[in-house]
């Protein structure tokens, strides 16, 4: 009996040593995961579960309806058209932001004086309040006293009521979204640019490659790992576009810029149709998950095909 206690202590110490990293990760991440489950995880699962119930009004009792809300989602043009707008408008915002961010990153990577301040200026829009900046943006677009319309009047042009034009509404949503997101995209691209081995540029220069050749054969292939991350995160964020639509166009004109997240917000907090809000959220989450998974698998497959070693021939 006296020898069993030291033996148990020895086993416990071996367990601690063997699983030290796992225990340390549990201690560090445990409180964060618990907090996430309380604040985000459980509400998200609860919201998804609402999609299987008919629940209109806070005081009403939820009634299980199975897949009725999902069937209505794909039959009612109000929902699947909002989903389609989220896809093409989000894709337009994502592509434009990524291209503008890549161009800005190339400029940031140049050896110029005061590049730290220059990089900070690019990132300022990303940390500013969307509510405040959209109100300033709307001040410029005011149909009567807006800065842009006043300029148009000064050159003899009729003022434009931006909010009544679908193309102009889409244009300003994209402009604001790019202005807001280009700084973050540029910094991530910049991190990728600085991770490319400098000796590859030297080798390309020796082989006679110019600036375009270095960009095409060294820079772009070297950015593939960071490109996978930034494209996936940009797609997720772009499909969930909401604040720009909410504060710039309000879904107008005539609902032509109403995206799916804005439709979910209206169902949940204006009409209190919690069942349809939950069903729409689950559909959007499934589409985002499938799209990002397919893109990630495609990227990993291409990377593996480019790095497979040549098999040695048999003797």
UniProtKB/TrEMBL annotation:
Domain of life: Bacteria
InterPro entries: ABC_transporter_permease (IPR051393), MetI-like (IPR000515), MetI-like_sf (IPR035906)
Transmembrane segments: 21-38, 87-108, 120-140, 160-179, 222-242, 274-296
Compartments, record wording: Cell membrane
Keywords assigned: Cell membrane, Membrane, Transmembrane, Transmembrane helix, Transport
Record keyword Cell inner membrane present: no
Membrane topology classification: Multi-pass membrane protein
Domain ABC transmembrane type-1: 83-295
Pfam annotation, one family: BPD_transp_1
SUPFAM superfamilies: MetI-like
UniProt key word Membrane: yes
Homology family: Belongs to the binding-protein-dependent transport system permease family.
Protein name: Carbohydrate ABC transporter permease
Organism the protein comes from: Cohnella yongneupensis
């Amino acid at each position: 009996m006296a020898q069993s206690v030291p033996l148990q202590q020895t086993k416990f110490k071996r367990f601690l040593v063997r699983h030290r990293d796992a225990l340390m990760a549990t201690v560090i991440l445990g409180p964060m995961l618990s907090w996430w489950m309380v604040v985000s995880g459980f509400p998200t699962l609860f919201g998804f579960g609402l999609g299987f119930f008919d629940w209109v009004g806070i005081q009403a009792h939820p009634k299980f309806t199975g897949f009725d809300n999902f069937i209505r989602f794909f039959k009612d043009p109000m929902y699947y058209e909002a989903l389609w707008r989220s896809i093409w408008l989000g894709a337009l915002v994502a592509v434009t932001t990524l291209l503008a961010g890549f161009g800005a990153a190339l400029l940031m990577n140049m050896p110029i004086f005061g590049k730290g301040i220059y990089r900070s200026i690019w990132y300022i829009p990303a940390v500013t309040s969307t509510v405040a900046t959209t109100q300033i943006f709307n001040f410029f677009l005011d149909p009567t006293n807006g800065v842009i319309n006043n300029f148009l009047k000064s050159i003899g042009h009729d003022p434009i009521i931006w909010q009544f034009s679908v193309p102009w509404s889409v244009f300003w949503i994209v402009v604001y979204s790019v202005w807001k997101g280009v700084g973050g995209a540029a910094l991530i691209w910049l991190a990728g640019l600085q991770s490319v081995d400098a000796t590859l540029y030297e080798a390309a220069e020796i082989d006679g490659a110019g600036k375009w050749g270095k960009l095409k054969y060294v820079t772009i292939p070297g950015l593939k790992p960071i490109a996978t991350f930034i494209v996936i995160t940009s797609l997720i964020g772009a499909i969930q576009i909401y604040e720009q639509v909410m504060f710039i166009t309000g879904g107008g004109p005539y609902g032509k810029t109403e995206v799916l997240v804005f439709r979910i917000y209206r169902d949940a907090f204006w009409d209190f149709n919690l069942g349809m809000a939950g069903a729409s959220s689950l559909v959007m989450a499934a589409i985002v998950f499938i799209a990002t998974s397919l893109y990630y698998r495609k990227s990993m497959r291409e990377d593996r095909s480019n790095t497979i070693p040549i098999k040695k021939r048999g003797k």
